[in-house]
Amino acid sequence: MDATVGLVKQYQSKSINLVKLKAAACYVRGVQLLRRQVLLLATVLFLVATAAVSVIVAPLIWLALAPWPIGVKLWLALLLGALDIGLPLFILSHLLSEKKWMKFSKSDELMESVMKKD
After folding, report:
1. What confidence tens digit (pLDDT) does each residue in 65-117 have?
2. 74 C-beta neighbours (distance < 10 Å), count
3. pTM of the shown model
4. Of 103, 56, 49, 106, which is closest to residue 82 (Cα–Cα)?
5. Taking the CB of the first residue and of the last residue of the chain, which one, N or C, has fewer CB atoms within 10 A?
6. DSSP codes, 53-95
7. Least reliable range by pLDDT among 17-26, 47-56, 80-89, 108-117
Protein backbone atom coordinates (compact mmCIF):
# COMPACT_ATOMS: atom_id res chain seq x y z
CA MET A 1 0.00 0.00 0.00
CA ASP A 2 2.83 2.39 0.84
CA ALA A 3 4.42 1.68 -2.53
CA THR A 4 1.19 2.63 -4.33
CA VAL A 5 0.90 5.88 -2.39
CA GLY A 6 4.53 6.63 -3.17
CA LEU A 7 3.97 6.01 -6.88
CA VAL A 8 0.87 8.24 -6.90
CA LYS A 9 2.78 11.04 -5.14
CA GLN A 10 5.66 10.65 -7.58
CA TYR A 11 3.23 10.73 -10.53
CA GLN A 12 1.54 13.83 -9.07
CA SER A 13 4.88 15.54 -8.57
CA LYS A 14 5.99 14.82 -12.14
CA SER A 15 2.62 15.97 -13.50
CA ILE A 16 2.86 19.23 -11.58
CA ASN A 17 6.42 19.75 -12.81
CA LEU A 18 5.29 19.14 -16.39
CA VAL A 19 2.48 21.67 -16.03
CA LYS A 20 4.94 24.19 -14.56
CA LEU A 21 7.35 23.58 -17.44
CA LYS A 22 4.61 24.06 -20.04
CA ALA A 23 3.41 27.21 -18.29
CA ALA A 24 6.95 28.60 -18.25
CA ALA A 25 7.35 27.80 -21.96
CA CYS A 26 4.09 29.63 -22.73
CA TYR A 27 5.21 32.58 -20.63
CA VAL A 28 8.56 32.80 -22.45
CA ARG A 29 6.79 32.56 -25.80
CA GLY A 30 4.43 35.35 -24.73
CA VAL A 31 7.32 37.57 -23.69
CA GLN A 32 9.02 36.95 -27.04
CA LEU A 33 5.83 37.92 -28.88
CA LEU A 34 5.44 41.03 -26.75
CA ARG A 35 9.05 42.01 -27.44
CA ARG A 36 8.51 41.63 -31.18
CA GLN A 37 5.39 43.77 -31.00
CA VAL A 38 7.18 46.49 -29.04
CA LEU A 39 10.04 46.47 -31.56
CA LEU A 40 7.55 46.69 -34.40
CA LEU A 41 5.73 49.56 -32.71
CA ALA A 42 9.01 51.44 -32.12
CA THR A 43 9.99 50.94 -35.75
CA VAL A 44 6.62 52.15 -36.98
CA LEU A 45 6.78 55.24 -34.74
CA PHE A 46 10.26 56.04 -36.03
CA LEU A 47 9.14 55.64 -39.63
CA VAL A 48 6.05 57.78 -39.06
CA ALA A 49 8.16 60.56 -37.55
CA THR A 50 10.61 60.36 -40.45
CA ALA A 51 7.79 60.35 -42.98
CA ALA A 52 6.15 63.33 -41.29
CA VAL A 53 9.31 65.35 -41.70
CA SER A 54 9.88 64.32 -45.30
CA VAL A 55 6.27 64.48 -46.47
CA ILE A 56 4.83 67.40 -44.52
CA VAL A 57 7.55 69.69 -43.23
CA ALA A 58 9.92 69.73 -46.23
CA PRO A 59 7.26 70.70 -48.84
CA LEU A 60 5.92 73.40 -46.53
CA ILE A 61 9.42 74.86 -46.15
CA TRP A 62 9.93 74.81 -49.92
CA LEU A 63 6.52 76.44 -50.30
CA ALA A 64 7.39 79.16 -47.80
CA LEU A 65 10.66 79.89 -49.57
CA ALA A 66 9.12 79.95 -53.07
CA PRO A 67 8.88 83.35 -54.78
CA TRP A 68 5.11 83.08 -55.41
CA PRO A 69 2.39 85.43 -54.18
CA ILE A 70 0.73 84.70 -50.80
CA GLY A 71 -2.56 83.60 -52.40
CA VAL A 72 -0.86 80.91 -54.51
CA LYS A 73 1.14 79.72 -51.50
CA LEU A 74 -2.06 79.48 -49.44
CA TRP A 75 -3.89 77.39 -52.05
CA LEU A 76 -0.89 75.11 -52.51
CA ALA A 77 -0.56 74.71 -48.73
CA LEU A 78 -4.24 73.76 -48.47
CA LEU A 79 -3.85 71.30 -51.34
CA LEU A 80 -0.75 69.76 -49.73
CA GLY A 81 -2.56 69.50 -46.40
CA ALA A 82 -5.57 67.81 -48.00
CA LEU A 83 -3.31 65.35 -49.80
CA ASP A 84 -1.22 64.68 -46.68
CA ILE A 85 -4.32 63.85 -44.66
CA GLY A 86 -6.74 62.50 -47.27
CA LEU A 87 -4.47 60.09 -49.12
CA PRO A 88 -3.24 58.21 -46.01
CA LEU A 89 -6.78 58.06 -44.63
CA PHE A 90 -8.02 56.53 -47.88
CA ILE A 91 -5.18 53.98 -47.98
CA LEU A 92 -5.62 53.06 -44.30
CA SER A 93 -9.37 52.66 -44.63
CA HIS A 94 -8.80 50.36 -47.60
CA LEU A 95 -6.05 48.29 -45.95
CA LEU A 96 -7.68 48.07 -42.52
CA SER A 97 -11.11 47.08 -43.75
CA GLU A 98 -12.70 44.04 -42.14
CA LYS A 99 -12.94 42.26 -45.48
CA LYS A 100 -9.18 42.58 -46.10
CA TRP A 101 -8.34 41.35 -42.60
CA MET A 102 -10.67 38.38 -42.97
CA LYS A 103 -8.80 37.45 -46.15
CA PHE A 104 -5.37 38.16 -44.67
CA SER A 105 -5.95 36.09 -41.54
CA LYS A 106 -7.78 33.40 -43.54
CA SER A 107 -10.68 33.74 -41.12
CA ASP A 108 -13.08 33.65 -44.05
CA GLU A 109 -11.85 30.15 -44.94
CA LEU A 110 -12.17 29.07 -41.32
CA MET A 111 -15.73 30.39 -41.14
CA GLU A 112 -16.62 28.62 -44.38
CA SER A 113 -15.21 25.33 -43.13
CA VAL A 114 -17.02 25.64 -39.79
CA MET A 115 -20.33 26.65 -41.34
CA LYS A 116 -20.13 24.08 -44.17
CA LYS A 117 -22.65 21.31 -43.84
CA ASP A 118 -21.41 17.85 -44.74
Report:
1. 999 999 999 999 889 888 888 888 888 888 778 788 778 777 777 777 777 76
2. 12
3. 0.46
4. 56
5. C
6. IIIIIHHHHHHHHS-S-HHHHHHHHHHHHHHHHHHHHHHHHHH
7. 108-117
